[in-house]
Automatic annotation (TrEMBL):
Top-rank lineage group of the source organism: Bacteria
Molecular function GO labels: transmembrane transporter activity
GO CC, any one term: plasma membrane
One annotated GO biological process: siderophore-iron import into cell
Name of the protein in its database record: Iron ABC transporter permease
Family: Belongs to the binding-protein-dependent transport system permease family. FecCD subfamily.
Location in or out of the cell: Cell membrane
Organism whose genome encodes this protein: Rhizobium pisi
Length: 356
């Protein structure tokens, strides 16, 4: 009886430790949410004309209490850009998080493995040649072409990664090769493009939120909202995969099916933002690592953490892009590259990355 009582006490102590850990992670998510709300408000307040946070809050919740100019700037000019930054950041971060999970690769992201470059090439192909990669897609030529090319690159990476003897390093090198391949194809299209088409293609290469519109936001948000329940449904299986394919299979997880489903959703999450705002690199790499460092691998916390970290990262980047030179808005892809490249190097050189 004494042994049973001691075991019961130990089990209850373990449960209490787990509950305390869960409460701490929920608190972290709450703090990240508050930080995202503050960043969103600052993004609305900063620009060529700066307003106080009080003016922004009043414009959001009591528009009649502010001037017509403040209301028009906040709602018509800055709101679409600020919302698009959050939605795109969340989409790219979630895509990178799940790609790192299923490939067991700390350097995996839509940008580093060439998926974003493939989507950019598909979008440029639509802009320069107006050739649809899918029939009956003329009305949505740019996003559909971007998705098709991203899907091709994703499936290529998926099937290569399944080959016997292929290591994590091989997948990374393969992704780098895809980046150079699609960048070369993109340069070829730029060489052939007219002056008007060339200026539009350059937009994709730098990435910018300035052309954000509500229809684009709703489409991107819809894709994100469709993907999240699919990932949430497979949360336990994705967490098990991080323990290794053999262990996940012993738990009854169909690793091949989960990996293929996830890669298809990732291609959609990567392609739609790129088709609207251009190539924005390293958000899908940095965002998941921030979430992993503070929340761990459990998908119940890691998934919302990746959403919040990616959204917060791109929202802060949007603020920085308007703050470097007053009156000038830098392409957001340039800022994310400046932040992401040192982080990428640190992952390559760290012992932690080699331990995956």
């Amino acid at each position: 009886m004494a042994e049973i009582a001691a075991l019961s006490i130990e089990v209850e102590a373990g449960r209490e430790r787990y509950r305390a850990l869960a409460r701490r992670k929920l608190l972290i998510l709450a703090v990240m949410t508050a930080a995202l709300c503050l960043s969103f408000a600052v993004d609305l307040a900063w620009g060529p004309a700066r307003y106080s946070l009080g003016d922004v809050v009043a414009a959001l919740f009591d528009p009649s209490s502010v001037s017509d100019q403040v209301r028009a700037v906040v709602w018509n000019i800055r709101m679409p850009v600020a919302v698009m930054a959050i939605v795109v950041g969340a989409s790219l971060s979630v895509a990178g998080a799940q790609m790192q999970t299923i490939l067991a690769n700390p350097l995996a992201s839509p940008f580093t493995l060439g998926i974003s470059a493939a989507a950019s090439f598909g979008a440029a192909l639509a802009i320069v040649t107006s050739v649809p990669l899918l029939p009956l897609a003329a009305g949505l030529l740019v996003p559909v072409n971007a998705f098709v090319m991203a899907l091709i690159a994703t499936l290529f990476i998926h099937f290569i990664s399944q080959a016997r003897g292929v290591s994590v390093q091989t997948v990374v090198l393969l992704g780098i090769a895809l980046v150079f391949t699609f960048n070369a194809a993109l340069a070829f299209l730029q060489y052939l493009a007219s002056e008007q088409a060339l200026s539009a293609v350059v937009f994709w290469t730098m990435g910018s939120l300035t052309k954000a519109t509500w229809p684009k936001i709703w489409v991107t948000l819809a894709v994100l909202l469709i993907a999240l329940p699919l990932f949430a449904r497979n949360a336990w299986a994705l967490t098990a995969i991080r323990l290794g394919e053999d262990k996940a299979a012993s738990f009854g997880v169909n690793v091949r099916r989960i990996r293929l489903e996830t890669m298809l959703v990732i291609s959609l999450l990567a392609a739609v933002p790129v088709s609207f705002v251009g190539t924005i690199g390293f958000v899908g790499l940095v965002g998941p690592h921030i979430a992993r460092m503070i929340l761990g691998e459990d998908q119940r916390f890691f998934l919302p953490g990746s959403i919040l970290s990616g959204a917060l990262l791109l929202s802060l980047t949007s603020i920085v892009s308007k703050s470097i030179i007053p009156g000038v808005v830098f392409p957001i892809g340039i800022i994310t590259a400046l932040v992401g490249v040192p982080f990428f190097f640190s992952l390559i050189l760290s012992n932690r990355s080699r331990s995956w």
